[in-house]
């Protein structure tokens, strides 16, 4: 599960992950805070973890795409 809070102008305010590698996900959350949603998607979309076809950063992109669609 990923909880994302963004402003009305599509700037990420806060990201919280449930599960995954805690240290890496804290780092990702801090790095994307203050960034535009489209910029984060452009940088992180499609990252693969160990041949799984997705990753925590890729899943964040999917969550951001859903947020934009709302």
Structure in words:
This protein is α+β, with helices and mostly antiparallel strands and 70 residues long. It contains 3 helices and 2 strands; from the N terminus they run E-E-H-H-H. It has a two-stranded antiparallel ribbon. A hairpin with a 5-residue loop joins strand 1 (2-6) and strand 2 (12-17).
Short account of what is shown:
The protein contains three helices and two strands, in the order ββααα.
Please give a handful of descriptors for the protein shown.
globular, 70 residues, alpha+beta
SSE succession: EEHHH
Biggest sheet details:
2 strands, antiparallel
Overall geometry comes to: globular
Beta-strand content bin: 15-25%
* Gap between N and C termini: 17 Å
Number of strand elements: 2
Helix content: 40-55%
Instruction: Report the uncertain regions.
Output: none
Question: In terms of topology, how is this protein built?
Answer:
Elements lengths: L1 E5 L5 E6 L4 H11 L4 H8 L11 H14 L1
Antiparallel strand pairs: 1-2
Helix pairs in contact: 2-3
């Amino acid at each position: 599960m990923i909880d994302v809070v963004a402003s009305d102008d599509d700037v990420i305010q806060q990201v919280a992950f449930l599960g995954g590698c805690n240290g890496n996900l804290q780092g990702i959350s801090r790095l994307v805070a203050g960034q535009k949603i489209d910029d984060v998607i452009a940088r992180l979309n499609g990252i693969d973890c160990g041949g799984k076809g997705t990753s925590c950063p890729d899943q964040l992109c999917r969550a951001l795409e859903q947020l934009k669609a709302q």
